[in-house]
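[stage:ingest] chain + small molecule (FO1)
[stage:ingest] validated
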Amino acid sequence: MIPKGHVVALSGGVGGAKLALGLASVLPSSQLSIVANTGDDFEYLGLHISPDIDSLIYTLAGVNNPVTGWGRANESWTFMSEAERLGIDSWFRTGDKDLAVHVHRTSRLRSGSSLSAVTDEIARRMGIAANIIPMSDDPVRTYLETDVGTLAFQDYFVRHGCKPQVSGIRFQGCETAAPSPMFRQLLDSPDLAAVVLCPSNPYLSIDPVLSIPGVVEALACNKAPVIAVSPIVQGQAIKGPTAKIMGELGVPVTPAAVADHYQGLIDGFVLDSSDGELSRSMAGTGLAVEVANTVMQSLGDRASLARTVLEFSRRLQHAPARPRHNPRVRLS
Ligand code: FO1
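[stage:predict] done
[stage:export] tokens:
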């Protein structure tokens, strides 16, 4: 049962987790579901790692490492140093506390639990009241075409430090994947108040979610306004390779290009205040545009942006519906 006025946020990476925390701090927990990208998931040393789910859980539980943007604060590294002593390739590092989550998730998955069920269990155990939901219980894996060949996401992101030049992105398994049961229920709910595309990488974090058959179509049919928050501020990404990838794909590194990427799907777009002068030209395209501080440094900034997004969505609920004439996002 989905309570009236429910908000769904689509999230991946650090930017997504920051706004998710803001939303969690201003909404009753029963009113918020956060859908995590699982295109970054992979197997490492036999363990199932779900980086974007972990970022959300650690951030909402208040135990995330704010310096690295991944893993736990106050972490110890006994496992990793012993692994290195054994000659294990340690390009991907997992601290001891983080490791416990990967071991638990892997063992529950091997005994037949779904990723949705395990994620929910871990989140509740970590004291999180909002719903954290994987985009799918089926494997969808992001691969990048680069100048050094095809790379699995974590090979590109961590092993190669996002250095290779990207010419294409695909989501292996998306054709046969289904939205996770709770995500499906939310997409079909008449009680949704808003869908928020967090300021995550549109190509690597949000597109995998949108690549799952039926998601874009369901968002187009749902009356809830869909609002995207710009991950690009002053021609740069706050963190990560978004701007670099846009440049390599031949897309202008601007908020307008992000809005254009989501064309036909979103009703509203939130620009950073420092890009406020773009609002008039963007609004000229018929898109509702809001200006806010999207650079979330403090918890107050996260809550303030969340309030602005929710207020914006309330205004859009009452505005005449913008025709979502083309419920297809151009996926790169
Ligand atoms: N990112 C790194 O740059 N280096 C790491 O060693 C690393 C380990 C790691 C362990 C668990 C986890 O959940 C995430 C981890 N990440 C690491 C981050 C992660 O691979 C990426 O930041 C995300 O996939 C991007 O959203």
